[in-house]
């Protein structure tokens, strides 16, 4: 049985670990690339969606702030849809379509609107949720209505603004520029982070309301007064509102008076005729069919190629290392197997894994082959020796008869027949052994009595025993019925009896006994011969082995009988053993199943 390979040295385990390591690296790299690419794509897509949504909403709020109705919004909506690639629909609060980028977008409106377009009620800026009240206005600064300056007023204010820019440059060394507000009013702002001191160059005309603004502010003041009276807010004169819609009044604490809400309400009432009515905005998925191809950026493509190359390099390196470690001992085994000299080479064992055990097994196989070759040479020599003696005798008698040195009488014929019978016996024994080795030894099993078979064998050998003055004794129990081939079993028992009689001196005895044991029967053949030395017991059943090392044939036999007995017993599913006390007794025990 092959030795068990420790798990830590298992070649299978190392291959599994290598495969798992390569797989983990590949999976991790793929997962990292996928997650990173997907995350970036989602972020970019989400950012693009938010940016598109903000652009659409801001543009349409600007349109609503500058137009008293949505009559001309169709062109703006289609242009936004073309630039953003999204479906855009504007409806009334009752979801009646006002303008749409295409009919399909109008036919599949979502359940909830994306936003409400109302320049007079903007949502609070995200970064001003808790700022001072006077800094928060939910009115779109582009909704100027009656505050829009005519061309002549803009020209005069811009001229004054340029003078102020020159003043800042000459007196304070500041670089300033002019920014025009949605109403057309110019405002001077400093470039960079420098602060300006308006007192030095302030011009009253630049900050005072123009006639147009004064008229609109007067209307706004009247609306604020109406709101204050309606809400029972105490208001004292003077009440002034500047061009930035900041309110000032005696005993008025900025940022905490309910008048601020009235100013906001008055502005909405004043601007309402100049802006488009509130509408619902629906922004849907891109109107055109999205392409299923995911386009990577150049940097993303390079990352994918770089990571793939790294994984491929690591995989090739690990595989090459494992392959080299596997191929080196396997190549050694191959070279040893192909050695043209035919010598039994010894393969060095350098590892303790499956390859190491394979090398050890091949070394063992080589040793067994060497022993087998030696046994084969010895067996061939023994066969030649066994056949040479009777053949030499037959040829010698025939040559003598041919030369007239011996008369071909009955005694000569009897001698030749005896030698020929010995040759036939050796050949028959070799044939039985060859059939046993090839696995083609045929049996004809049947129910039989081992006692009767043993008694028949004793009767057959009684004459030979009497000739050698050896006593034959039999002791059997009543029931020794088994399943077996009577011819082969008689042959085995005959070989045992012949061997015992040959090795028993005169006045000795050979005893055959049989008894039933658990699971079968046992047959014992005991003789009072010379016995077998303990060192020779393991070789008793070897072919052509004799206790007489000189190979004298005085005791007869070919040296094949006991080997044949062992094969015949094993063919019946039994076993044979031998015990011996040199100079006293030798016992062969045959155990056969029922």
Rg computed from alpha carbons, rounded to a whole number of angstroms = 60 Å
Helices and strands, in order, run as HHEEHEHEEHHHEEHEHHHEHEEHEEHEE
Shape: rod-shaped
The beta-strand count equals 15
Q: What percent of the residues sit in helical stretches (DSSP H or I)?
A: 40-55%
Q: Spans with pLDDT under 50 lasting ≥5 residues?
A: 126-134, 250-256, 287-293, 549-555
How far apart are the first and last residues' alpha carbons, in Å?
Answer: 29 Å
Largest sheet: 5 strands, mixed
Structural class: alpha+beta
Strand order of the largest sheet: 10-12-13-15-14
Question: Structurally, how many domains make up the residues?
Answer: 4
Q: Classify the beta-strand content into a percent band.
A: 5-15%
Overall average pLDDT: 80
Count of DSSP-assigned helices: 14
Which short descriptors sum up this protein?
single chain; 594 residues; alpha+beta; Helix Hairpins; four-stranded antiparallel beta sheet; 14 helices
Explain what you see.
The protein is α+β, with helices and mostly antiparallel strands. It is 50% helix and 14% strand. The strands form 5 sheets. A 5-stranded mixed β-sheet has the order 10-12-13-15-14, covered by helices on one side. The protein has a 4-stranded antiparallel β-sheet with strand order 2-1-8-3. Helix 1 runs antiparallel to helix 2 and helix 7 crosses helix 8. It starts with 10 loop residues before the first helix and ends with a strand. About 5% of the residues have low confidence.
């Amino acid at each position: 049985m092959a030795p068990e390979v420790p798990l830590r040295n298992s070649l299978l385990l190392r291959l599994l670990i290598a495969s798992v390591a390569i797989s983990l690296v590949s999976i991790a790299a793929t997962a990292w690339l996928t997650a990173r690419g997907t995350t970036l794509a989602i972020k970019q897509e989400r950012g693009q969606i938010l940016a598109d949504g903000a652009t659409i909403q801001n543009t349409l709020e600007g349109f609503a702030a500058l137009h008293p109705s949505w009559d001309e919004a169709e062109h703006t909506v289609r242009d936004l849809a073309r630039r953003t690639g999204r479906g855009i629909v504007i409806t009334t609060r009752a979801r009646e379509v006002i303008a749409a980028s295409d009919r399909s977008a109008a036919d599949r409106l979502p359940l909830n609107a994306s936003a409400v377009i109302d320049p007079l009620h903007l949502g609070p800026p995200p970064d001003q949720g808790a700022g001072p009240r006077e800094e928060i206005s939910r009115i779109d600064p582009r909704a100027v209505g009656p505050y829009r300056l005519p061309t002549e007023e803009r020209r005069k204010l811009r001229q004054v603004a340029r003078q102020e820019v020159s003043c800042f440059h000459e007196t304070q060394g500041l670089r300033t520029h002019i920014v025009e507000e949605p109403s057309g009013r110019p405002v001077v702002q400093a470039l960079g982070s420098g602060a300006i001191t308006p007192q030095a160059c302030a011009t009253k005309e630049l900050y005072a309301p123009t006639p147009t603004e004064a008229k609109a502010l007067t209307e706004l003041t009247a609306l604020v007064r109406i709101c204050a009276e309606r809400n029972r807010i105490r208001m004292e004169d003077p009440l002034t509102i500047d061009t930035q819609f900041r309110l000032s009044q005696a005993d008025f604490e900025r940022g905490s008076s309910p008048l601020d809400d009235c100013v906001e309400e008055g502005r909405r009432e004043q601007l309402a005729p100049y802006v488009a009515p509130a509408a619902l905005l629906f922004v849907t998925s891109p109107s055109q069919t999205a392409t299923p191809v995911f386009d990577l950026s150049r940097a993303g493509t390079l990352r994918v190629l770089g990571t793939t190359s790294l994984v491929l390099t690591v995989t090739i390196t690990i595989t090459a290392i494992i392959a080299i470690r596997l191929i080196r001992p396997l190549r050694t085994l191959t070279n040893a197997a192909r050695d043209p000299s035919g010598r039994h080479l010894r393969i060095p064992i350098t590892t303790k894994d499956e390859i190491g055990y394979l090398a050890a097994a091949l070394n063992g196989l080589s040793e067994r082959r060497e022993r087998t070759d030696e046994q084969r040479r010895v067996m061939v020599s023994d066969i030649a020796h066994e056949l040479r003696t009777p053949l030499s005798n037959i040829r010698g008698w025939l040559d003598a008869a041919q030369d007239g040195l011996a008369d071909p009488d009955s005694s000569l014929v009897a001698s030749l027949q005896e030698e020929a019978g010995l040759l036939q016996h050796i050949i028959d024994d070799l044939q039985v052994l060859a059939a046993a080795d090839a696995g083609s030894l045929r049996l004809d099993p049947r129910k039989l009595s081992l006692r009767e078979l043993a008694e028949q064998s004793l009767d057959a050998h009684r004459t030979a025993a009497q000739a050698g003055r050896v006593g034959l004794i039999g002791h059997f129990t009543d029931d020794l019925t088994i399943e077996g081939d009577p011819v082969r079993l008689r042959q085995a028992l005959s070989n045992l009896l012949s061997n015992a009689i040959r090795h028993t001196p005169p006045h000795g005895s050979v005893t055959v006994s049989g008894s039933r044991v658990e699971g079968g029967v046992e047959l014992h053949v005991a003789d009072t011969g010379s016995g077998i030395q303990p060192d020779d017991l393991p070789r008793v059943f070897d072919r052509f082995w004799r206790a007489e090392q000189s190979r004298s044939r005085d005791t007869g036999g070919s040296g094949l009988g006991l080997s044949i007995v062992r094969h015949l017993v094993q063919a019946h599913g039994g076993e044979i053993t031998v015990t011996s006390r040199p100079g006293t007794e030798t016992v062969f025990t045959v155990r056969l199943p029922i």
